[in-house]
């Protein structure tokens, strides 16, 4: 008799964004004439840069000719892209081509990486958190029971106003620590010094850090690390996830990469050190078949002079939206965080109303969609996320509507 | 202390195709002037059909304009492609759009599907077998120890000359049965009647069949099912995997799909029936972010009139190669199977030499690369795989060289 993975039963029924989508579509059915502005999900609106489009068209021409056609590519990604990444993203950080793995998305990598680890690792997440870290560990049986909004075996590290959104070291030692900075959903960052404390902590405890740097290109302030490998010792404790989704608008094109340094180890039952780079390589070679050649040529073009300028323009565009949001909220006396080194603005719900109540109020009264903080974890209650990924016009209109709400 | 997934240690060190690649590159280094013809790995050589290229270019134009730009697509795939699949591949078979899941490859799906099942399911594979079914179950801890060329907990069902390549029902009842027909590597097929026996067997024993139909478009004979859902009752016992890799040359583009009928269930600890369609949907929504919009438009074009003709032409081209291979082997008095409903030819090594010895001999004397049967499992020993995916010219030349070998 075929038996299911029981851990799936521990997953919460409602995935955050599907609940939001359902509420929005119900509202739109009832109010077909109202223009709803979505500042909820982290999806982009700017088109793919011209340099990427041109490169992908050239690649398509190659694929249409038997002389230049390419079949299966390397599971790890083409060397031309891995080299461009090393040269452009990790200059002077000592990261090697063999440590870069191209994939079809940071979400996939964050999810699939759990394959490498024993069920009995203790995981720590910051709270609120991007749900994928948690759900993929629930599926793998590492989370325990869901009681009072929390999984019993998971260490929750609050990120709140009270601790200035700086995660405190946990007294209970985790084996695997998920850190995402610039943070999703709070939009807050860690300085090099603050991140160094986590690298040291991981080293001291033989833990590993899963560092999600998907938003690193939005950093505007100095002394905020764009890669965890800017921190001394990080190559011995951290895997880093990066993505082209938010910079080059690749959410619908699908390309990302993961860095697994060869100096990074975990332990087996006999306390022998096992190189994680080898394990991830084996996992990818067995369960993955590489990213579309077309897509990889598109990603490579991001690193040309034209591509870099276009990316910069995209980011400036979105960060201008972030400023519009922050300014509007300030005028309305709503307290907000993030938005300076990140496309996410994390506001405190006015009058301490619940985050889902604020969601309903915003949808009903301003026809604006955001994401309720509670959906990201218990410490997200009382907060609300707005994203800077809309068009400038919509962002201005959304803030005007919010400003004229009765709060 | 972070602990690795111990099951990785049970994986065999050498992956079949990497060993082949290593031997070939060593040979080429020593013999830089010899032209090696590769009929080994199942990679295609014909370029992407024009209809697909045109559709992908149109999609790129859409992506370059903010009015027609698309960000995140549905994790399950766009409805336009799912609908085209239902209308073209499953006409009159009662498969619903919600039962189709688009992905970036059948290898990924075959690998990721194991997430849904408890560690303690007993798996059965045919032997020889596509290594991914086995390795992904090793990683999940279902295979046991590797002793004498076999994993102790896996049921091996031989596919050999002796049983006419028709898998016998196992006396020990498996929970999960992997079947691939037209078969990789043997190139052999099952009739509807023969497959029906397996569907009935699975139903009787509450087992599930993972049906890999990646080569269904190569079927030329009547009464050979292109989909397991042509068999009555299969929708209650089978998941089906299909791919555009070999038909439209998408090995480097990456697009496939998996069918998980809503009538398909597995059991939980309390013997309650759980719908696998829901579980797979949840898995994909959590660990996957959909396939490139560009790619999906390319796949859709396969179902246009022009696309269908181009695919047919591709398949005819490869099947003509298969005929060339079969004819050449016959002239050389080498016994061979497959090649009629499949791009794979499975030959018996002459004089009973081992499959790796035949590999070395073929590489050294004819400079032709094939795949040693032993690499696909213990029952593959004494056999050797040649594929029809080369160019016609190379296939003819390879067979001429083989014919002039001393055997």
Main traits of this protein?
homodimer, 407 residues, alpha/beta, Aspartate Aminotransferase, domain 1, Aspartate Aminotransferase, domain 2, 2 domains, seven-stranded mixed beta sheet, 35% helix
Descriptive account of the structure:
Two copies of one chain form a homodimer. Helices cover 35% and strands 15% of the residues of chain A. Chain A has helices at residues 16-30, 50-63, 79-89, 106-112, 131-139, 192-204, 276-287, 293-301, 305-331, 355-366, 392-403; strands at 37-38, 100-103, 123-127, 146-147, 150-151, 155-158, 176-180, 208-212, 238-243, 256-259, 265-267, 273-275, 336-338, 344-348, 368-369, 371-372, 383-387. Chain A has a seven-stranded mixed β-sheet, sandwiched between helices. A four-stranded antiparallel β-sheet of chain A has the order 13-14-17-16. Chain A has a two-stranded parallel ribbon with strand order 1-15. The longest helix of chain A has 27 residues, at 305-331. Chain A is globular. The termini of chain A are far apart.
């Amino acid at each position: 008799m075929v038996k299911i993975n029981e851990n799936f039963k521990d997953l919460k029924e409602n995935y955050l964004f599907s609940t939001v989508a359902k509420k929005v579509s119900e509202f739109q059915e009832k109010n077909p004439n109202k223009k709803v502005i979505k500042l909820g999900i982290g999806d982009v609106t700017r088109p793919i840069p011209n340099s990427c489009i041109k490169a992908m068209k050239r690649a398509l021409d190659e694929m249409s000719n038997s002389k230049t056609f390419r079949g299966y590519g390397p599971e790890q990604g083409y060397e031309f892209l891995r080299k461009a990444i090393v040269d452009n993203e990790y200059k002077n950080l000592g990261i090697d081509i063999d440590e870069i793995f191209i994939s079809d998305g940071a979400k996939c990598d964050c999810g699939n990486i759990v394959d490498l680890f024993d069920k009995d690792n203790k995981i720590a997440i910051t709270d609120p958190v991007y749900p994928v870290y948690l759900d993929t560990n629930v599926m793998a049986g590492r989370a325990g029971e869901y009681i009072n909004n929390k999984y019993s075996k998971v260490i929750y590290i609050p990120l709140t106003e009270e601790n200035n959104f700086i995660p405190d070291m946990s007294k209970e030692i985790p084996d695997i620590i998920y850190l995402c900075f610039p943070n999703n959903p709070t939009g807050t960052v860690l300085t090099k010094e603050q991140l160094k404390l986590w690298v040291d902590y991981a080293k001291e405890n033989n833990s590993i850090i899963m560092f999600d740097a998907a938003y690193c290109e939005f950093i505007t302030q100095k002394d905020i690390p764009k890669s965890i490998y800017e921190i001394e010792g990080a190559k011995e404790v951290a895997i880093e996830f990066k993505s082209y989704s938010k910079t080059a608008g690749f959410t619908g094109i699908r390309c990302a990469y993961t860095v697994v340094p060869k100096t990074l180890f975990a332990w087996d039952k006999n306390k022998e050190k096992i190189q994680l780079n080898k394990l991830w390589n084996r996992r990818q070679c067995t369960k993955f078949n590489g990213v579309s050649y077309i897509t990889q040529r598109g990603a490579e073009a991001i690193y040309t002079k034209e591509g870099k300028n276009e990316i910069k323009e995209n980011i400036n565009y979105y960060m201008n939206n972030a400023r519009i949001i922050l300014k509007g909220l300030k005028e309305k006396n709503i307290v907000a965080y993030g938005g300076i080194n990140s496309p996410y603005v994390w506001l405190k719900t006015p009058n301490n109303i619940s985050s889902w109540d604020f969601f309903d109020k915003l949808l009903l009264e301003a026809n604006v969609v955001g994401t309720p903080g509670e959906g990201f974890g218990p410490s997200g209650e009382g907060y609300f996320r707005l994203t800077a990924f809309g068009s400038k016009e919509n962002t201005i209109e959304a803030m005007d509507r919010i400003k004229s709400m009765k709060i």
